[in-house]
Design goal:
8 helices; 287 residues; alpha+beta; single chain
């Protein structure tokens, strides 16, 4: 794995540069865990930034992985997965992202079909994007932005894009955040925006065989098997190329109509929280 990350440094580090990094580490005898706060023994030469974490109500010292040396230090700390946020420090979101997750028992093929719905919805909205395997059963769709839209507008546009894709085939895809409401359909996760993180292209994943998140041409998406892209096979498939960088369109403005539609759609996590409380109250009343 260290050899793999070393060979991929010139293609992975640019995705991490300027972005407070979260990693998932695997230590012997322990379950995998996500690390945001750098440990005290971190070398002084690792660049870092201290940010307030609202979820934990404390300041967190994040790494800035901006060179090969830092990446290899993480690799030797048994950091397997690399999860940068969707915006750089002191900048607005650089990408709009939909995370496509197949249902329990569903495979990659249905996730790929749902990704094509998103691609069609993007084209109808005036956007273009690139697609990669998540490294598990899912798919990540990225649309690069010109950096002029605030987080709230990008989040709204993400909700609207997911809703437009859902309307193209509601029997296949759903935006329902509560799992029991999905009824075996592919989940279009519209909650990734701004400071939300997602596995970088080429990042290994903690799965059997150590697969990696791998770029795929849109025309080939239906014919690939994500298990074919692993730390042992990816380098030979890539050669000297960087298909993720090559597939990514240029930065695009966020369509105003997408933002306006998204503002009318409730935030999925908030809506699910309130609905969960309502259902819990109903169950208690029934009991």
């Amino acid at each position: 794995m260290v050899d793999y990350l070393d060979a991929l440094a010139d293609r992975l580090v640019p995705q991490l540069t300027g972005r407070p990094l979260s990693v998932i580490r695997v230590l012997r005898g322990q379950k995998p865990f996500m690390q945001k706060n750098l440990p005290k023994y971190t070398p002084d030469w690792v660049r870092r930034v201290t940010l307030w974490a609202e979820s934990s109500r404390r300041e967190v010292s994040y790494a800035l992985c901006e060179d090969r040396r830092t990446l290899l230090w993480f690799a030797n700390q048994r950091a397997v997965e690399y999860h940068p946020p969707l915006m750089r420090l002191d900048e607005r979101p650089s990408h709009l992202v939909l995370d496509i997750d197949p249902p329990e028992g569903g495979g990659f093929a249905v996730a790929a079909r749902a990704a094509h719905l998103v691609h069609r919805a993007m084209a109808g909205s005036g956007l273009d994007g690139a697609v990669k395997t998540s490294g598990a059963k899912g798919v990540h769709v990225f649309a690069p932005l010109d950096g002029t839209a605030p987080v709230e507008d990008v989040a709204a546009a993400t909700r609207a894009l997911a809703a437009r894709a859902e309307r193209l085939d509601p029997e296949l895809a759903t935006t329902a955040f509560i799992r029991e409401d999905r009824a075996g359909r592919v989940f279009l996760d519209s909650t990734r925006a701004g400071t939300a993180t997602i596995a970088a292209a080429y990042s290994p994943r903690i799965r059997p065989g150590t697969p990696v998140s791998f770029p795929v041409p849109w025309d080939d998406l239906d014919s690939v098997d994500p298990k074919d892209f692993t730390v042992r096979t990816a380098l030979a498939l890539l050669g000297d190329a960087d298909p993720w960088g090559e597939a990514m369109p240029g930065p695009q403005p966020l369509p105003a109509d997408l933002v306006e539609e998204g503002r009318t759609i409730p935030i999925a996590r908030v809506q699910a929280m309130h609905e969960g409380k309502r259902r819990a109250r109903a169950r208690r009343t029934q009991d």
